[in-house]
Design a protein that fits this description.
By secondary structure, the protein is α+β, with helices and mostly antiparallel strands. The chain contains 7 helices and 11 strands. It has an 11-stranded mixed beta sheet with strand order 1-2-4-5-6-3-8-11-10-9-7. It starts with a strand and ends with a strand.
Length: 285
């Protein structure tokens, strides 16, 4: 049964519940319960949208960027995973991929409903991988959907389990652009997304979780790639797929490489030019 919210819990409450979830002990859990939450009457704040577009290099127009609904439902994702029946600790989850599909443009002034639910789960070598499925509706019509894939890494990974399925990217990525990622990018993204994960905020808070410096949020990196590639698309893109690889340390300099492929698609890779370390790969169409 789906519970419907008219507003999200306070961010501080969600993060307190997320911190307490470290006490969860899922053990050899193989499947997740079919939980779902719905949020009704979502409106876009003009200032928040403007800040988001400026931070990600996106063109601001009469319709929402295809990545923006993901920002709007971030709190709904957290609310679902802090429910008592959700068995995994949030601080042990790793975002590994995202697929966004826009079924029709969403006007900036639209009032919409969002629903998130637990999708498929599967065992991989690193642990338990599962999908969060999100739908956005305007006047009862589904206009946007996303699959957010996460992994709970088990303390003792399996040696005989299947590896994650990796999507191939064409080896020749001939066109490229460079940009600087500032040290405060994680804090600025937190202000517009509501995602205050400490690994994105400061070097000292990231070190608590084993990172030498703060790291960029994966969905900021995806949106920044979208902002850089918008002008390369002959029509407004409606589908974005990304697979997250190595963390992007802040501050940093990155190179975005891309190549046109079949059916008006762009394959792209975001990497560090010095080391060649790949931060994400994706497809836009």
């Amino acid at each position: 049964m789906t519970s419907t919210l008219t507003q999200l819990p306070r961010t501080s409450t969600l993060y307190w519940e997320a911190a307490l979830s470290v006490m969860r002990r899922p053990g050899a859990l193989k499947t997740l319960p079919p939980l779902s939450l719905r949020l009704s009457g979502v409106r876009t704040e003009a200032a928040r949208l403007a800040d988001y577009c400026a931070l990600c290099g996106l063109t601001q127009g009469p319709v929402l960027p295809i990545t923006f609904p993901q920002v709007s439902v971030n709190g709904l994702h957290m609310a679902l995973m802090t429910l008592p029946k959700f068995p995994l600790p949030l601080l042990g989850l790793v975002h590994v991929s995202n697929r966004i599909e826009q079924h029709r443009p969403i006007p900036v002034e639209a009032v919409y409903d969002a629903e998130v639910r637990i999708g498929d789960s599967r065992e991989v070598r690193a642990g338990l991988e599962f999908d969060l499925l999100t739908d956005v509706e305007v006047d009862g019509e589904r206009v946007w959907s996303a699959v957010t894939t996460l992994i709970y890494r088990r303390p003792s990974p399996r040696q005989d389990g299947p590896k994650r399925a990796e999507k191939a990217v064409p080896p020749s990525l001939a066109q490229y652009a460079h940009f600087i990622v500032e040290a405060d990018t994680g804090r600025r993204y937190a202000a517009v997304s509501g995602d205050y994960n400490p690994i994105h905020l400061h070097a000292w808070s990231a070190r608590v979780f084993g990172f030498p410096r703060a790291i960029a949020h994966g969905m900021w990196s995806a949106a920044r790639c979208l902002g850089a590639l918008e002008a390369q698309c002959s029509t407004p893109p409606t589908t974005l797929e990304v697979q997250f690889k190595q963390p992007l340390l802040l501050p940093g300099r990155v190179t975005l490489k891309w190549v046109p492929v079949i059916d008006d698609q762009l394959a792209f890779t975001l990497l560090s030019p010095g080391s060649g370390k790949v931060h994400l790969t994706g497809m836009l169409r």
